[in-house]
Write a structure and sequence with these properties.
The complex is a heterodimer of chains A (355) and B (172).
Chain A: H1 2-22, H2 27-32, H3 36-41, E1 57-74, E2 76-78, H4 80-83, E3 99-116, E4 121-138, E5 145-153, E6 157-166, E7 170-179, E8 188-190, E9 197-199, E10 212-221, E11 226-236, E12 244-245, E13 249-257, E14 264-275, E15 279-280, E16 305-317, E17 322-353
Antiparallel strand pairs in A: 1-2, 1-3, 1-17, 3-4, 4-5, 4-6, 6-7, 7-10, 8-9, 10-11, 11-13, 12-15, 13-14, 14-16, 16-17
Chain B: H1 2-22, H2 31-46, E1 47-48, E2 58-64, H3 67-82, E3 88-93, E4 102-105, E5 120-123, E6 133-140, E7 143-149, H4 150-155, E8 159-160, H5 162-165, E9 169-171
Parallel strand pairs in B: 2-3, 2-4, 4-5, 5-6, 7-9
Antiparallel strand pairs in B: 1-8, 6-7
Helix pairs in contact in B: 2-3
Classes of the chains: A mainly beta (355), B alpha/beta (172).
């Protein structure tokens, strides 16, 4: 989730910066709202608008929090008690495990910046800092309840955006980039698998370990209704040093912004995302025997699936050059390769400096 | 891990320096020209076009200018269209549009254009020479001012409101 999120955040900031450049909340909009008499009084040398004339740089900080709780197999709920193997005397299968993650919390701080080369070309760079923890229950003695944490920088993303079409009705952008394997895939912690620290499962790693390629087509309506649509993908390549590759992800999303006031825009969004399972396997987190996976999150096949999420939020431009955006999203449908922990909700806050 | 972060920081820095140097800064539109663009929007609000011109349904604004000004005008129009304004404006390049209700010229076009037949022609400055010009911008005491050719407006049946005319220098 980390890398797609950070890429999406950069894209949102790009779209947000551009939309503010072109629409309600920046230099053009200030001039668009000037009355005849105000115009008549304005001095061409009194360049009060100079400060907002448009720095080519954008900076943004995004904080995102996600919680995963409960299990789905396909779109059917599975109780924790069904997924936790109860030990000797009960049947062990591929769908129950002696260790069960109950709650996964993930906090991502994304620092990003963009540079406008000209009206048609922009470049962006972002790096996430990830803090995550997973609460577990298990049937292993002394590990009946335990928590594993990991934190550190994730995968950095460099990308270039090109404006394909720009009319008074709409704007189309194409963005392509590369995600660098800067996040660790060697995070360790104390698990019931052995004494001391061991390699942690995929969910607790901070990066993908592979060079990945995010791409996005986005559409911004410039008509009476302020909405945007985007199609994006994260294409992953090769295999990392631990002989696996995270699944590709593809998403379609749309956001509609309401004109509450000149500076405050509530928005509603809907997103569909498909993610494939992990390819390959990290053998260090498996066990010998008929049932090699001590927890569902150690089985690479139990990753990925489909998800439809609804989002709501508000964007507030509180100064000439800064905007604050707050959002909350919740899946309304999930069909996962399970049993797999399901996403409960995501929320985010973004502070951005506009172009 | 520390080495990786240092390496990454170096990459990002190099990346930014390279792009900052290779990419030229976007040409800015001066405040004077931004004010003229904003005036154009107000002209559309404070003038009335004949009912059979179609301007009430979809106002065709044509611009003949450099790209930065065009893009700024385009952004103003987008903002206008998202507001509660009754008239929806469509902006286009003068040479490419089949019909213009108002045409803004930064520089002149010598050839005769059919799309300007019923257009209010607005000139960016007194230095621009264009036939059938009805409005010309000029500067006076560091302020943007404009003059109206009432006879030219009358020829194309366009009426300027009294609020607009009282701010204009009138040419009869």
């Amino acid at each position: 989730m980390n890398k797609l999120s950070s890429f999406s955040i950069v894209m949102c900031i790009t779209a947000g910066s551009y939309s503010s450049l072109c629409m309600a909340q920046s230099t053009p909009s200030e001039f668009a709202e000037l009355s005849l008499n105000e115009l008549f009084e304005m001095d061409i040398a009194d360049d009060t608008a100079k400060a907002v004339a448009g720095s080519p740089w954008t900076f943004a900080y995004n904080f995102k929090f996600a919680e995963f709780r409960g299990y789905l197999d396909g779109d059917a709920k599975r109780a924790d008690s069904e997924v936790l193997w109860q030990g000797q005397g009960t049947q062990r299968s591929d769908e129950n495990f002696p260790i069960l993650p109950t709650v996964i919390d993930q906090q991502v701080h994304v620092f990003s910046m963009g540079y406008r080369i000209n009206a048609d070309w922009r470049v962006h760079a972002s790096i996430p800092y990830i803090t995550q923890s997973t609460d577990h229950i298990s049937i292993v003695p002394d590990y009946d309840q335990f928590t594993i944490d990991s934190d550190g920088s994730g995968d950095a993303v460099l990308s270039v955006s090109h404006r394909l079409i720009a009319t008074s009705e709409d704007i189309w952008w194409f963005t392509a980039g590369v995600s660098l394997p800067t996040g660790s895939i060697d995070e360790k912690g104390d698990t019931p698998r052995d004494v001391g620290n061991q390699q942690l499962p995929y969910t607790m790693q901070l990066g993908s370990g592979t060079y990945d390629f995010p791409v996005e087509f986005s559409y911004q309506s410039m008509g009476k209704h302020d909405f945007s649509l985007s199609m994006s993908a994260m294409i992953r390549t090769g295999k990392n040093d631990r002989d696996y590759r995270l699944g590709n992800s593809y998403s379609l999303s749309g956001t509609y912004r309401f004109n509450a006031t000149a500076n405050i825009k509530p928005f509603l969004g809907l997103a569909y995302q498909y993610r494939s399972a992990i390819h390959g396997q990290d053998d260090e987190i498996t066990l010998a025997g008929a049932f090699p996976y001590p927890a569902s999150i150690t089985n690479p096949r139990l990753y990925g699936g489909k998800k439809v999420s609804a989002e709501m939020g508000v964007r507030w431009k509180f100064s000439e050059t800064y905007a604050l955006s707050v959002s909350f999203s919740k899946p309304i449908y999930q069909n996962l390769n399970g049993p797999q922990p399901k996403e409960n909700f995501q929320s985010g806050i973004t502070l951005s400096r506009l172009m | 891990m520390k080495e990786k972060v240092v390496k990454l920081c170096k990459c990002i820095f190099l990346f930014c320096v390279l792009f900052a140097q290779s990419g030229h800064a976007e040409e800015e539109v001066t405040k004077e020209r931004k004010l003229k663009a904003a005036y154009v929007l107000n002209f559309i609000k404070y003038m009335s076009w004949p009912v059979n011109s179609g301007a009430q349904n979809e106002f065709r604004l044509c611009v003949h200018s450099d790209e930065p000004f065009y893009q700024f005008m385009q952004a103003l129009v987008a903002r206008h269209n998202q507001g509660a304004n009754k008239v929806r404006i469509v902006i286009g390049h003068t040479l490419q549009e089949p019909l213009c209700h108002l045409a803004y010229f930064q520089s002149s076009i010598e050839q005769s254009l059919g799309q300007l037949r019923r257009a209010v022609v607005v000139l960016e400055s007194l230095d621009v020479k264009q036939v059938h010009a009805a409005i010309r911008f000029y500067t006076q005491a560091q302020k943007v001012r404009f003059e109206f050719d009432i006879a030219q407006l009358a020829k194309i049946d366009v009426i300027a409101s009294s609020e607009l005319l009282k701010l204009a220098r009138i040419i009869r």
